């Protein structure tokens, strides 16, 4: 690393950190990490930007260098509960043409996204105070896009009986919700292992009316792609 | 009504209501109704007992005559998202010996409980600030009891494949969660109709690995009991 680059990363003289850094990684990530912890433990409304800055060990003014405020922090955190899954969809659809295997893999990717999100931030989107944040619409749009992806895949699978009177759009919503079980499990102190993940992902197929034998088959077909869909993700 | 009873219900002289009553029903119910509206619109932490009292049109001190504080109000609201369902279980099991019909009816009762809860209060149990309330353990225990009921019924139904590696207890949890889809739908402005309710209840059977034909059968069998399980509930 050149000394110029290294100097850039050091606090400027006269503007020392309030305390030594408590967390690792770039300051922007440290802010997100500390905010995630505070929002999910105290609640969004009850957390101030000052507390977040203090937890990171930077001045409040420095926090505003990275984010316009709490609202931008929470919307970035929420978008991270969806983006990795959406990023995996095209890759999954290039790997398999079987819609049941594809739906299973998308759901599995979604389970992993929620299972690895720091401090179970998926939790936050249901909080009334978070829903009022400017920029929350962006999260709603991203979640709708995820539901539309589920709906598109499910519409190629679902039996007439399983669709009943509700139609593919509502089924897509249902599949997003069924994967969000991860959030409740984590809240209850449960660690999501691969068996849980596989079971939750296959519940998406069951909700489409896929019978036991074909669920089994999709799960087995998916196995060869597991490493490819999201590399080293937990 | 005797004049003594009627006098009991009137404000005593010298202690008039701050404003005329804004809501109907006994004061305790008015407090619950106003609190449900404020908690779900502003959030729990951001709502004061003073605001609740003002919304009802009573003094803050009068509110404390009915409740020890916000915590007792929110735990009472949360318990009402579960109690009516639990109350219906014994009645349902006396009506039918078929576990699939029974599970469907319990789930349907649960859907109706959440769909008719004022201001979608089911929403609140996921809020970090609510989870810290003294008395929240009681709600957790009630929700666990509901999950145990689902687990007991599901264990008589679920195929080995559908259970996979997770076991009946986790399947019970999953079924509670799948019905909680109602909360998200209401948040998104969706009004739950009978078709939605039937579809969500039958998704519990699908998650147990019940095939389309048998789901159909349970739904039809259940129809004759619909009026009996919870009388005039919406």
General description of the model:
The structure is a homodimer of 234-residue chains. The first copy, chain A, is mainly alpha-helical and 234 residues long. Chain A folds into 2 domains: 17-67, Orthogonal Bundle (Arc Repressor Mutant, subunit A); 78-230, Tetracycline Repressor, domain 2 (Orthogonal Bundle). In chain A, 68% of the residues lie in helices and 0% in strands. The first copy, chain A, has helices spanning 3-9, 27-42, 49-56, 60-66, 70-79, 83-95, 99-116, 128-131, 136-155, 160-163, 167-179, 181-187, 194-207, 212-223, 226-230. The two termini of chain A are 30 Å apart. The model of chain A is unreliable at 1-20 (pLDDT under 50).
List the helices and strands and how they pair.
Two copies of one chain form a homodimer.
Chain A: H1 3-9, H2 27-42, H3 49-56, H4 60-66, H5 70-79, H6 83-95, H7 99-116, H8 128-131, H9 136-155, H10 160-163, H11 167-179, H12 181-187, H13 194-207, H14 212-223, H15 226-230
Helix pairs in contact in A: 2-3, 2-5, 5-9, 6-7, 6-9, 7-13, 7-14, 9-11, 11-13, 13-14
């Amino acid at each position: 690393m050149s000394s110029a680059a290294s100097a850039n990363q050091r606090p400027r003289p006269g503007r020392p950190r309030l305390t030594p850094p408590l967390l690792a990684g770039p300051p922007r990530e440290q802010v997100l990490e500390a905010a995630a912890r505070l929002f999910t433990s105290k609640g969004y409304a009850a957390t101030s930007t000052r507390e977040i800055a203090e937890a990171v060990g930077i001045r409040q003014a420095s926090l505003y260098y990275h984010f316009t405020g709490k609202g931008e922090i929470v919307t970035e955190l929420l978008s991270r509960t969806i983006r990795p899954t959406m990023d995996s969809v095209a890759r999954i659809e290039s790997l398999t043409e079987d819609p049941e295997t594809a739906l299973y893999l998308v759901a599995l990717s979604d389970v992993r996204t929620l299972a690895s999100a720091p401090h179970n931030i998926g939790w936050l989107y249901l909080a009334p105070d978070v829903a009022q944040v400017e920029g929350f619409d962006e999260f709603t749009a991203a979640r709708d896009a995820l539901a539309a992806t589920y709906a598109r895949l499910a519409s190629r699978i679902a039996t007439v009986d399983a669709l009943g009177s509700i139609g593919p759009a509502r089924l897509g919503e249902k599949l997003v919700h069924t994967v969000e079980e991860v959030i409740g499990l984590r809240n209850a102190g449960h660690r999501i292992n691969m068996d849980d993940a596989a079971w939750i992902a296959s519940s998406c197929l069951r909700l489409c009316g896929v019978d036991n034998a074909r669920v089994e088959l999709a799960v087995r077909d998916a196995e060869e792609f597991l490493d490819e869909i999201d590399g080293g993700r937990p």
